[in-house]
Amino acid sequence: MKHYIKNLSICLALGAVTASTTSCNDALDMEPISQITPENYYQSASQVESYLNNYYNTFLMGPYTYMYHQGGWNDGMISSDSNTDILVQGLNGNTTLFANDHWDTPSAKQLQGYYGNIRAVNFLINTVEQNIESGVLDGNDAAVKSALGEAYFMRALGYFRMLGMFGDLPIVKEVLLNTDEAIIPASERKPRTEVADFILEDLDKAIANLKDRSAYNGQRLNKQSAQVFASRVALFEATFEKYHKGSGRVPGDANWPGAKMSYNSGKSFNIDAHISTLLDKAMAYAKPVADAAVLTENTGLLSPPNKDTYWGWNPYFEMYGQNSLANNEEVLLWKEYSTSFSITHDVPFRSIQGCADGYTMNLINSFLCKDGLPIYASDQYQGDDTYTKVRTNRDERLQLFLWTDQLSGQTQSLGNVSDNFFCANIISSNQEIRCITGYQPRKYFTYDKTQISDDALHGVTACPIFRSAEALLNYMEASAEKNGGRPDNTAIEYWKRLRARAGVSTDIEATVAATDLDKEYNKGNGDFGVYSGTQQVDKWIYNVRRERVNETFSEGLRRQDLTRWRAYDNMLTTKWIPQGCNFWTSIYKDLEASYSSGETIKADGSSDANVSAQSLSIYLRPYSRNMSTTNELKDGLNWHEAYYLYPLGTVDLTSASEDRSIEKSMLYQNINWSTQAGDHALK
After folding, report:
1. Residue 408's pLDDT is what?
2. DSSP type of residue 405
3. What is the pLDDT of residues 175-192, one digit of tens each?
4. pTM over 0.85
5. Which H/E stretch holds residue 280?
6. Beta carbons within 10 angstroms of residue 658's beta carbon
7. Contact yes or no for 404/387 (Cβ under 8 A)
């Protein structure tokens, strides 16, 4: 298309294709795409791009990988880290993940349901490569090559999503005929080691073919985005294999369920060698992007200097809250929104009003003081009994992206928001906007009055999808894991760049020396990244993990990180009680006066209480607000071994069997899950 600027947004709303492609019937046995697509299509780069435009949103958003703001009345990427240690969402929490006997083996397809989009991209890859071979398409045309690279990128992204959810996977590269003879043999689950290697092979092809970020100003998939994503995949799988080895979730384990399948007979696995290779690849993919990265400037200003300034006061803050990121070199890929095409979101409004979520104490306490020392080791730390004290002398990422009570410039009148326009909606009678922890996210906010005037989907701020800063972080972590502690000097220099932008001392060694891992974890009210399994990690590795979460919170990476680190394990034996702000020391005193008539603090443990009782803790406990017996999370959240991988549905298993029996299925159930629909996790 001529105006490629719209490919991540506007074209998707209009359809943006000349020919029909596939439906949303996600199944391995859907009708062949060739039967509903004109045979004379895909003869130019623009036609291939048009096909791909249908799938940008599909592949960039879905379970396990959330990459942009969705439309609707929500706070978009702000809540992308929900169900982790750093952000909790929903007044009643997620009982499926964190209570007992709610997540069951489903009867419907689960795994196979994700192959419809894989099928669509396979069709495109096969067709384009055939047309190049026959001379219909010019394989040396940069536009054709880049479009083909996009297809390989999308297939890799689709498989990565499934790898994170299910582990071992069937690898399907062709458009299968709708017959048992074709589908059942193709249902063999390949060990996750092979799947990860396959994903990286696709990304190698994408990297070789894609144009640079500059060709599209970050508005189409590009080489640098593919390099960052490849480093993410390699790091994910390396650390998953390292920390889950022996659990039955890694090929070669004694209790790995794939070992019983005849098609895996004779396979051997050198997991340690594979981990080492993947860590090398993670660094190799990340380094070109990291070396060339232009980190967006942080001016140190926390708010606009006057009420008429919306943009231009702090580019780092505005990277998450301006309408176009075309000229922001750090943002490698981004999504555009447009009022004219009715592609909008509610993020700016919800980031000031609240959205039934909030950051936890775990995240807030992980941020260093400006001297580079943890809060328990620094004279600069002022305490947490007010929002102002929490942010004083702290990492500027905390200061910028957390709402506090006294930020200069916050007396501006913005739309229908009052002059004294921030006070976390902790006790609001409107439960939809209540800030359940008292720590309200400010990331993705904009001071543009037109976008926060009311709850009417006026948001058109762009959403970053891939940033070059992640390349620095991926290299740092891969190097630390490779070395078993201190990363190499290149990683240290990357680290210093990130810390300098955050307004934090670049004396990394001083930070590590002052780190006390017991205090960092703080009996569950600290950083879960302290642990892998039930063992504390090296202090260098932990501090790399700290830098990662401080740089990327609310960017959809935390659940992936906790999963690959095996960091939920302490919740197997000890419930975690999420906590928020220090409410009962002083914040509560003036709270009621700032609210509408009739709103009041209610902390009696009843079903309509709006905060937890002071007798439980001075800190808000969002899921201990209601202490009735029907509240399964009132005493804390737990975890199950099975939950690190999703279960396959029974229809997955039977449809991959020649006689429709589970016993003869070419698929197998993930460890700690039953093959009977409705059964709870076994462990």
Report:
1. 40
2. S
3. 988 888 888 999 999 999
4. yes
5. helix 271-292
6. 12
7. yes
CA dihedral sign of residues 42, 46, 49, 53: negative
Nearest partner of 502 among 286, 295, 680, judged by Cα? 295
Q: Do residues 502 and 368 lie in contact, with contact meaning Cβ atoms separated by under 8 Å?
A: no
Coil, strand or helix: which one is 457? coil
Query: What pLDDT is recorded for position 37?
Result: 55
Euclidean distance between CA atoms 212 and 329, whole angstroms? 12
Cα separation of 330 and 290, whole Å? 10
Contact 667, 652 (CB under 8 A): yes
Question: Can you give the pLDDT at residue 180?
Answer: 86
Q: Are 48 and 128 in contact (CB under 8 A)?
A: yes
Quickly tell me which residue has 């889950």 as its tokens: 244
Compute CA distances 248 → 5, 241, 510, 572, whole Å: 46, 11, 39, 16
Task: Residue 162: name the closest of 103, 98, 116 by CA.
Answer: 116
Token pair listed for 255? 């209790």
For range 387-403, the mean pLDDT: 95
Taking residues 552-577, report their average pLDDT: 98
Calpha distance 90→83 (Å, rounded): 10
Residue written as tokens 């505005």? Answer: 318
Q: What is the average per-residue pLDDT within 605-624?
A: 96
* Dihedral sign, Cα of residue 377, residue 381, residue 386, residue 387: negative
3-state per-residue secondary structure call for 242-258: HHHCCCCCCCCCCCCHH
Q: Is the pLDDT confidence value at 349 over 70? A: yes
Q: Give the model confidence (pLDDT) of 54-66 as tens digits.
A: 999 999 998 888 9
Q: Per-residue b/e over 522-545, b at no fewer than 16 CB within 10 Å? A: bebbbbbbbbbbeeebbbbbbbbb
Q: Residue with structure tokens 């880049």?
A: 146
Dig out the tokens for 17 from the structure.
């294709």
H or E element: which one contains 537?
A: none
- Closest residue by Cα to residue 401 from 320, 295, 333: 320
Q: List the structure tokens of 372.
A: 């580079």
DSSP secondary structure code for residue 334 in this structure: E
Residues with Cβ within 8 Å of residue 129, at least 6 apart in sequence? 148
Q: Distance (Å, rounded) from C-alpha 317 to C-alpha 409? A: 14
